[in-house]
Amino acid sequence: MTPKVELHLHLEGAAPPAFIRGLARERHIDISGIFDEHGNYAFRDFPHFLKVYEAATSCLRTPEDYGRLTLAVLEQSAAAGVIYCETFLSPDFCGGGDVQAWKDYLAAIREAAGQAERREGIALRGIVTPIRHFGPGRAKNVALCAAETVGDWIVGFGLGGNENAGEPRDFRWSFDAAREAGLRLTCHAGEWRGPESVRAAIRDLGVERIGHGVRAIEDLALVDELAERGIVLEVCPGSNIALGLYPGWRRHPIHALRERGVKVTVSTDDPPFFRTDMRREYERLAEAFDWDEGVFAAIARTSIDAAFCDDDTRGRIVKRLEAARA
Ligand code: ADE
Ligand code: ZN
């Protein structure tokens, strides 16, 4: 199978529904309303998706829960061919913003990631991520948590949640603090708002990657700027289609963005929510745009070059990508 590199994955968003149901049962939490009759996550639109996501996340209550979740997620990712992955982690969900609690959650996640790397050969790194609709005040706290845990494993800082809540500049303090602490930066933008939102994330937060960013296609001057500056898009086509941003795979702008010279990468975002995984994303893209192995190999290389990990790790992954091509 083609080895894959995934840069945009929310750990809670990757939780298998049965895993969350198991926790809910143990803890007598009623979340029956978030599933459909087949046991899949069910939501009407993006704001409702965020509610369902947060209800599912409310079942994860201890560092051990996150450790078990990490193992379950990485087993699935490895089965889909992923050899390197970056995941968003939110101290708001992991310990409620308390620094010591966050450290305990992170220790459990790292322990599980180490086990998965030994067993499955998949490497994981973390991007600390405040939730935009929780506001800039809580984001400051998250940045302080991030600064306390910068190192070889926590490698980046991002911003997820509802893009319609506030402006990127509201989060400048947190992004400046994260940058000063040594973290690399990304931000969700150009998913629920248009090109101006992407411009603002780059201008006001100084990010080098954009989560999604696909709506840049509505402004070709911006597309050219992204290409010239080498800003990397973490594109999640299956997520965009499942949430109704585009009516189908052939209508998704990833191909047009790539053709115009933008560095695009491919990720799943929240795979069980969107009934996808990395293998399925690759298959659908191959069908829709006639992409061959050469295109996917180039995308994997763009992805690992844009990864926030240290250069030793990057070098090891590049070797594995090259070996698979030989
Ligand atoms: N959190 C989980 N998935 C997300 C998405 N697609 N956009 C913003 N925040 C998210
Ligand atoms: Zn996302």
Explain the layout of strands and helices.
Layout: E1 4-10, H1 17-27, H2 46-57, H3 63-79, E2 82-89, H4 99-120, E3 123-128, H5 136-148, E4 154-157, H6 172-180, E5 184-189, H7 195-205, E6 209-212, H8 220-229, E7 232-235, H9 237-242, H10 254-259, E8 263-266, H11 278-289, H12 293-306, H13 311-325
Parallel strand pairs: 1-2, 2-3, 3-4, 4-5, 5-6, 6-7, 7-8
Helix pairs in contact: 3-4, 5-6, 12-13
Looking at the structure, the CATH topology is TIM Barrel
Tell me the span between the first and last alpha carbons.
13 Å
Overall helicity: 40-55%
Query: Which ligands does the model contain, each kind named once?
Result: adenine, zinc ion
- Tally of helical runs: 13
Tell me the CATH superfamily. Metal-dependent hydrolases
CATH class: Alpha Beta
**Which structural class best describes the helix and strand composition?**
alpha/beta
Can you offer a commentary on this structure?
The protein is of the alpha/beta class and 326 residues long. It has a single domain (4-325), classed as TIM Barrel. The chain contains 13 helices and 8 strands. It has helices at residues 17-27, 46-57, 63-79, 99-120, 136-148, 172-180, 195-205, 220-229, 237-242, 254-259, 278-289, 293-306, 311-325; strands at residues 4-10, 82-89, 123-128, 154-157, 184-189, 209-212, 232-235, 263-266. It has an 8-stranded parallel β-sheet with strand order 1-2-3-4-5-6-7-8. 47% of the residues are buried. The model has no long low-confidence stretch (mean pLDDT 97). Adenine binds at residues 10, 13, 53, 160-161, 188, 191, 239, 269-270. Residues 10, 13, 53, 160-161, 188, 191, 239, 269-270 line the site of adenine (ADE).
